[in-house]
Sequence to fold (207 residues):
Amino acid sequence: MGNEESEVFRGHLDECLRHLGARLAGVVPKGSRGAVESRRPLAEFCGVAVDSVGRWLSGTVPIGEQRLKLMCFLDLIGYRVIELERIPKIQRGFAELVGFGLVSSQEATELLGYSETSTMFKVLAGQQGASGDKNQRMWDYWKEAKGILERKKETLMPVDFLALLPQPDNNRSGLSELRELAKEFAELSNRLNAWLSHQGREGDYGR
Fold:
């Protein structure tokens, strides 16, 4: 979660996007190859095309998983997104597991026992309440995964957004660390699937 000392800008998601867009436009000419490359780290983080990021920076806010990933990325680089800050603590911790790619939206939906992914995202956004049982699941899984989550944040953490632009030399140590993290994510996913199977044997918990 955010560090006050590194705050770049605070506002609603659309305001943060416009601020970031203006900031990048002041560094790289619009329409240039540099402008495209400056958007690539965000596109890769969210799993979308670079063109989608261009629309976001103009104020078109995505929904669902892309919205959550976008807020997590902005928080990582020093933006304080009001919508993210307002998410209750338990939901926020679990939401970051999805936002940083440790748990897929489908896995999160199944884990919490929802039939619709859209319902799960409303809960994670604090727009809809959750039962005590579901809150406990979110808390327990976040506690188990928080160490991996923090390591991934540290691996991705830039000093400034511009530090994410392509560099002449590859950071081999960083790549090695990411590979190790990928192994841990796979192990975490296996534990999640085993947990889901165990819960399924105990009965239908999705009602």
Notes: Residues 165-175 have pLDDT under 50 and may be disordered. DSSP finds ten helices and two strands in the chain.
